[in-house]
Amino acid sequence: MNNGNGLKKHNGKHIPHWKKHICRTEHAAIQVEDDRTGMDVETLKRAFFDNLYYIQAKDKGWATAHDYYMALAYTVRDRLLHRWLKTVEQTYFKKDVKVVCYLSAEYLIGRQLGKNLTNIGLHDVARQVVQESGYDLYDLMEQEDEPGLGNGGLGRLAACFLDSLSTLEIPAIGYGIRYEYGIFQQVIRDGTQVEVPDRWLRFGNPWEIPRPDYTMEVKFGGHTEAFTDEQGRYQVRWIPERTVLGTPYDTPMVGYNSNTVNTLRLWSAKASDEFNLQIFNSGDFANAVADKVFSENITKVLYPNDNNYQGRELRLQQQYFFVSCSLQDIIRNFLQHDDNFDNFPNKFALQINDTHPTIGVAELMRLLVDEHQLGWDKAWDITQKTFGFTNHTLLSEALERWSLSIFGRLLPRHLEIIFEINQRFLDEVRAKYPQDIEKVARLSLIEEGADKRVRMAHLACVGSHAINGVAALHTELLTHDLFRDFYELFPEKFSNKTNGVTPRRWILVANSKLALHITNKIGKGWIKNLEELKQLEAFVDDQEFRDQWRQIKQENKQDLAEYILQTNGIHVDPNSLFDIQVKRLHEYKRQLLNLLHVITLYNQIKQNPHADVVPRTVIFAGKAAPGYAMAKLIIQLINSVADVVNNDPDVGVRGSVPEASRLKVVFLANYNVALAQRIYPAADVSEQISTAGKEASGTSNMKFAMNGALTIGTLDGANIEIRDRVGHENFFLFGLTTEQVSQMKAQGYHPWDYYNSNPQLKQAIDQIASGYFSKGDRDLFKPLVESLKNRDDYLLFADYQSYIECQQQVSEAYRNQDKWLRMSILNAARTGYFSSDRTIREYARDIWHVQPVPVILEDDQQENAAIKHRSTTSINSQ
Ligand SMILES: *Cc1c(COP(=O)(O)O)cnc(C)c1O
């Protein structure tokens, strides 16, 4: 496109401001500018081999695939840089622009190379560029270590939001923690989960840029002192026990076909300078080193619990550390233009992703009152106007309630502030409900009892102007159940924001064949406006369109079958029904219910070896929290059942080829974003079978449907909204409703009754108990069996028969491939609502009150680097 243009532009012509930053000398200017920004094949190729030599210090003879990956990553990063700087300059540093600050302890952003190439429209060019290396682009993309800085849905939501914010040109910063070790790598050994540390930074991270000049100081421990200042005002001084430094590492987040490159700013903990001084002065080297270890431990590792609270002090340190760094950073930015904090809420919208960053409410109060000398009322007004709070769970075991002893030891000043907030809040409550002592106790930020605790969700509700749930049902339950009293006090704060996922990552990058097929039919508008997928409905009877849809699904299934053979050594038939459940292992998600269906199918085949059954491949993947024994046992049971089923000759009688079988069971290790990208495009059936009322939203349900899978699911989370939109006739519904679940629990639930009255269920449970799947070992799975028979907290037995019958309907429907195909197309065509672009637009309109701010590049720059998508979406075909 700009072949040779670099020369011409510099011949006596005006050099745009941004280029001056890059050009170190006039002499070097021509070459440097061109190599680092040019978007054509020749320039990229030159940059690619230059980076190989000058950054990786390798030449072609020595370079590994990883060296080439790094060289390409730097080549791509260079092409994001000036749009990134422009975004920073025109948005964050501009007075009249409001910026969204998304605070999240987790970001599950996935590999960056493929996404960045797609979003800047360089995918096809890059494929040509790497040819000379002897590797193909796909090989290089596989080299990237995934940044696993999250557990599951919550962290992935934050990542989808960043993609949408940049694509929609909304000024935003994502703030979080740069964990040195992300979510552990899961290995399956003898059928059980083994956790391996995730050393994702081992070979360096080409996407991040450290910013030591923006380092912040964070205090911990110690005590507080009250005093009166020169103006006679009451003040409090916090004398900390120690201070820790936080250094930000910035990662560019480029939107699709947009000039906006927002920042993901992750904080890394370092020992403070005082540490160094101590070494020299005190001679107490051991203690000084211990302090260094304390500091640097803070961002060492991600806690691997999903939807589960563990009151560990280190976790509170992490939360306070990143929130304090972020708020100081935001205030530093603010004060560059403004000295009147009244304007603060007009400049920044702070969103707290679940309660993990909720300490921010007390920290902003502390910064405003103690460090910037605002009066309490003024500071409180600003704080409330600034924060929004997203709740992600109703599960009581997931609610953060910090014991006062830990809290007071680590954050003595914040505890005082929280007591003060609570006192003023409860005074209001008492004024409104003078007689109702119990209501006051229920609303209090402090849970009374032997071990008093700070209820972080309550602090978040009181300290925010907006509170939202993440799906219609979830918000309904929030307002009528968990936050009922708060809803009664201030109903206007509450709203629903149903989650979404980015179609760039989850269709364009993950399923490039389907993306191209769609674009060929309806153009590429759907990539930024997913509602346009509706136009596909017109082709639901178009034979050519249908054939290709089916062909693409088939090829995706073949790709996954190959992967399964490579990783698990199991032959699976791409013509069988791919029935898939991938998500964190959790009892409420009911992987066990799925497995009970597998065992039931197996028993049916054994009983009637010549029955005409629809062949199925049932695929599981998901990590269990290392301390969650029951979840780990479920993984072991899945693998044990797989062993028996996959090796039973009675199951495989359909033909002589190894993959020809009527039932196969596969557990894929180490579920992460990269694996998810392989899995969704290959699914026929999406398992979304949580106990009604337990899954706040779910997002894999959306990703599956977008890729043409049909859902078997309960009326839980976003399933309800998916079903309403794709059409009830295109969704396999089973199970109790939320109301029926509560009713059943209220009247006393007896799993035994179901066990005794359902022979198929009894048989399956008895087999597990008898050691049928554990080589005769009757003890191994006893905890599972006992838990089901005696408690069955998640009502697997109550939903079993409904689920089995629904699965029979699934199989019958699959026999009619024409009808199935129609349902598959209609599912994908009607998922437009579930784009995270829609979700972000709603947050922007209702909670953040922010507008898009298009980033303007210089004229000649527009021509060269503004992302011109040359081809349609041919983008990703491999
Ligand atoms: C989408 C996604 C999730 C969330 O899945 P749910 O089934 O909604 O819980 C978790 N992990 C990864 C890697 C994902 O991509």
Helix content: 40-55%
In total, the number of domains comes to: 2
Number of helical segments with 4 or more residues:
37
Overall pLDDT level = 92
Oligomeric form of this entry?
Answer: single chain
- Per CATH, the superfamily of the largest domain is Glycogen Phosphorylase B
Bound molecules: pyridoxal-5'-phosphate
Structural class: alpha/beta
CATH topology call of the largest domain: Rossmann fold
* Overall 3D shape: globular
- The percentage of residues in β strands lies in 5-15%
How many individual β-strands?
Answer: 23
The N- and C-terminal alpha carbons lie at a distance of: 23 Å
CATH C-level class of the largest domain is: Alpha Beta
The stretches of 5 or more residues where confidence is low (pLDDT under 50) are 1-32, 860-878
What is the radius of gyration? Answer: 28 Å
How would you characterize this protein structure?
- It is an enzyme of class 2 (transferase).
- It holds the Pfam family Phosphorylase.
- Its EC number is 2.4.1.1.
- With 878 residues, this protein is an alpha/beta fold.
- The chain folds into two domains: 411 residues, Rossmann fold; 241 residues, Glycogen Phosphorylase B (Rossmann fold, 3-Layer(aba) Sandwich), CATH 3.40.50.
- It is built from 37 helices and 23 strands.
- The strands form five sheets. Strands 1, 2, 5, 6, 9, 10, 11, 12, 16 and 17 form a ten-stranded mixed β-sheet that branches. A six-stranded parallel β-sheet has the order 20-19-18-21-22-23, sandwiched between helices.
- Strand 19, helix 26 and strand 20 form a beta-alpha-beta unit.
- It is globular and about 95 Å long.
- The two termini are 23 Å apart.
- The N terminus and C terminus are likely disordered.
- Bound molecules: pyridoxal-5'-phosphate.
- Pyridoxal-5'-phosphate binds next to helix 9, helix 27 and helix 28.
